[in-house]
Amino acid sequence: MSDISPGGKPVPIEVIEESLYEVRRKIYPRSVSGLFARWRFILVFATQLLFYGLPWLSWNNRQAVLFDLIQRKFYIFGLVLWPQDVIYLTLLLILSALALFLFTAVAGRLFCGYACPQTVYTEIFMWIERKVEGDRFARIRLDGEEWPWGFRKWRLKITKHFLWLLIAFWTGFTFIGYFTPIETLGASLIHLSLGPWQIFWLCFYSFATWGNAGFMREQVCKYMCPYARFQSVMVDKDTFLVTYDKVRGEPRGSRSKSADHNSLGLGDCVDCSICVQVCPTGIDIRDGLQYMCIGCGACIDACNQVMEKVNYPKGLIRYTTERAIEDKESNQSAIRHILRPRVLIYTAFITVLTSAFLVSLATRNPLRVDVMRDRGALAREVEGVRIENIYRIQIMNASEHPMKVRIKAVGLDDLSVLNSQGREIQEIEVAPASNQLLPIKVSTTIGKNESGNYPIHFDVIAQELSGDEINIRTRDEKSTFIIPR
Fold this sequence. Notes:
- The structure is a single chain.
- With 485 residues, the protein is of the alpha+beta class.
- The chain contains 17 helices and 18 strands.
- The protein has a domain at 367-483: Immunoglobulin-like (Sandwich), CATH 2.60.40.10.
- The chain has helices at 13-20, 35-53, 86-107, 110-114, 117-133, 136-143, 151-176, 182-190, 196-216, 218-224, 227-230, 246-249, 274-277, 298-309, 322-327, 331-335, 341-362, and strands at residues 2-4, 10-12, 58-59, 62-63, 65-68, 73-76, 79-81, 241-244, 317-320, 367-373, 380-382, 386-397, 403-410, 416-418, 428-430, 434-445, 452-466, 469-483.
- The strands form 6 sheets. Strands 10, 11, 12, 14 and 16 form a 5-stranded antiparallel sheet that branches. A 4-stranded antiparallel sheet has the order 15-13-17-18, with no helix packed on it.
- Helix 3 packs antiparallel against helix 17 and helix 7 packs across helix 9.
């Protein structure tokens, strides 16, 4: 098939499609060692130790970190959060956003290069790929048409994907273990008794990990991640980024090791393209700052190794600022510009919000009380001597210890608090990390007060039994008492 060009000549459809859509070129990153490679390994190990290990930790005979959506309770070690504690989640999200802004303003996409799940699992999958299929050139030959499909090629591909799927499955299983007790989940998996939703999410997250880290890789960073698109508005001339020193490197060109490149009119860049070969997103850092750069520093390690071999100073590619390159400043001089207005503002907001968050957690009252009037029976006369209002009171114990609770109503003369059987409430026991919904009656003698709506208070006093220690928790909830005419 063909189309007609403005000049009247036929243009193949393939050319038109290629001009509209970028054809994905598979990237074969070369392995590299050095300072930033070591930091990536440390961060990958630390993040995965945290992710895979947390669900298996116990705290007070339960899972230490568990987001129980069915019971609507979040357990984070000794902290139990209820839906009413959504303010803490809001603060955490705001702090995370501000921290991202701060890190980006100081040093670009640090999170992307070292701690982003996409980067972390891509690193793990590429490590497996290198161990199974070999180095960069071996993988290129293996995928090339000159290497026909045979026993060895099938064995290598199947082994690689089996290990990928194993990692992906364990990742999906661990993720679900944050929302379902992981020991219960493991027992259900062994006995093949998983529920339909558990099976769905296990398959979904396993497939997502396998697909994103095994196949899509840099496509996620380039086209799917919104952070790549708006990071450019968060950096300025004083942001530390992975930067190629054009002043020192250009004009680039190959030369012998013994040649005097200055007399040849060449810069320090020997145009070996190793910086491109090690890049996980396949960009050429020498073309300047690009939104596809995840700031992993692989090109810095690779370039420094080349500079060592040709006896040139390191740092042709380095973490530095645009201002330092333009003014030919050292990194020590560039560091002085870090404390600029936007950084100070982000730091101030983070400090204030973190302080408020920690103070709020430290002073948090684990006793929660919610009083609701019974809409079906606002007020009624009992045995001709008392007026009764019906309420439902919910008592929530957000601590890890049992509570003994007393309820008292004040605001009118001769108020009594009774249970649903009409007996006066003495004491209520509320188990740790649980809640009770109680129907109660509040009554007063007829004639003690005139008809009308009166504000009253429920004074709730709880004794939190923490070993040999008793902590007193109190709540004061407002409501109204209706006396009919």
